[in-house]
Amino acid sequence: MLIDNEDESLSELDAVEQKKQLPEVAPLSEMPEKYRQKSLEEVVKMHQEAEKLIGKQAQEVGEVRKLADELIKQNLSSKQQPIEKEPEVDFFENPQEAVRRTVDNHPDVLAARQAGQDFKKMQIQQKLAQEHPDFGQIAQDADFVNWVKSSPVRLGLYAKADGEYDYDSANELLSTYKQLRGVKTRQTTDAGETQRKSSLKAAGVDVGGSGESGKRVYRRADLIRLKMSDPDRYEALSGEIMQAYQDGRVR
Q: Based on the structure, what is the number of domains in the chain?
């Protein structure tokens, strides 16, 4: 029995020693804020959405790289294309042509030719500015551009005016356009005036003792009806309507 007690004591001592020898388990690292108080399903869902976003971004990066590669290839192919040069003329076979090309391609001759074109352009612009001070604004007007494009004849005149600095072509285009625009403006103005008079006539009624001769008296109900049914027209006539109120011509 003594031996059994000793064995028991030894086993208890062994157990204590084993506990001491066991490595301490490191505490779990603190969970990030975004995962706290979330269920496992929610964490898995967040992970899946993150994977989808990463996949989408990777696809976009791949597309950009592909486009960049294609652009680089296009630039390289354009640079590799040989520039066609005019065949050289043998001086002994055709001395006149050889001399002409040499003179035409001389830097001083090219500079003088460019200076002459610039001077001609400046002269045409000054002449146009005297005849048409607004030619710069008209040339940039979308209505003018569409008007030119709608006719092959006008396109030809524009090409000659712009490419050859031809004054007559430019003047013809500007003069014709301004005349047509003036007619159109007058027609629009006349139509608006006619409509305005018709609207006033529909809203007004002659009553005795209206005051000044030739001025109309308006029914208040008609003016209210006009404002309700057609507020834009009422706004256009607001000046005359207010004057009628001031004159006491609204009954």
A: 2
